[in-house]
Amino acid sequence: MNGGVEYTVAEEEINLTRGPSGLGFNIVGGTDQQYVSNDSGIYVSRIKENGAAALDGRLQEGDKILSVNGQDLKNLLHQDAVDLFRNAGYAVSLRVQHRLQVQNGPIGHRGEGDPSGIPIFMVLVPVFALTMVAAWAFMRYRQL
């Protein structure tokens, strides 16, 4: 293994209804400003809070948008892609590609109180050891 993170891709059709602030996301990419090296695709750079995309919940930052209302986004200038989104109408169908990290090995439990996934003993053992050293030092130097 090369030590890199492995990914798999999944495609999904997402239908959004344009809201007061548009579709609720920003894009990057295009043939004139590649976001990913050797890929002129269009990517979601930001999901706007309370926008149509955020309320739907499926579109994520970093997703690649493959088509808008059936129109392929390959080989477009950035501004042409922006114009396509702006003129897409009220009901917009997006074909997107999600990039998912592959989980290698057993899946550990991550409870609400442990968002980082670090096992509790990895924290408690060093804290206990430091407490013991501090107590020993206190008792040792208190007698002097």
TrEMBL record:
Gene3D superfamilies in the cross-refs: 2.30.42.10
Gene Ontology MF terms in the entry: protein kinase binding
Intracellular or extracellular location(s): Mitochondrion outer membrane
Keywords: Membrane, Mitochondrion, Mitochondrion outer membrane, Transmembrane, Transmembrane helix
PROSITE patterns noted in UniProt: PDZ
Domain PDZ: 13-100
InterPro entries associated with the record: PDZ, PDZ_sf, Synaptic_Scaffolding_LAP-MAGUK
One GO term of the biological process aspect: Rho protein signal transduction
Segments traversing the membrane: 118-139
An example Gene Ontology CC term for this record: basolateral plasma membrane
PANTHER family: DISCS LARGE, DISKS LARGE 1 TUMOR SUPPRESSOR PROTEIN
Subunit structure: Binds (via the PDZ domain) to isoform 2A of SYNJ2 (via the unique motif in the C-terminus). Interacts (via C-terminus) with RALBP1. Interacts (via PDZ domain) with ACVR2A (via C-terminus) and ACVR2B (via C-terminus). Forms a ternary complex with ACVR2A and RALBP1. Interacts with MAPK12. Interacts with DLL1; enhances DLL1 protein stability, and promotes notch signaling in endothelial cells.
Record protein name field: Synaptojanin-2-binding protein
Organism in which the protein naturally occurs: Prolemur simus (Greater bamboo lemur)
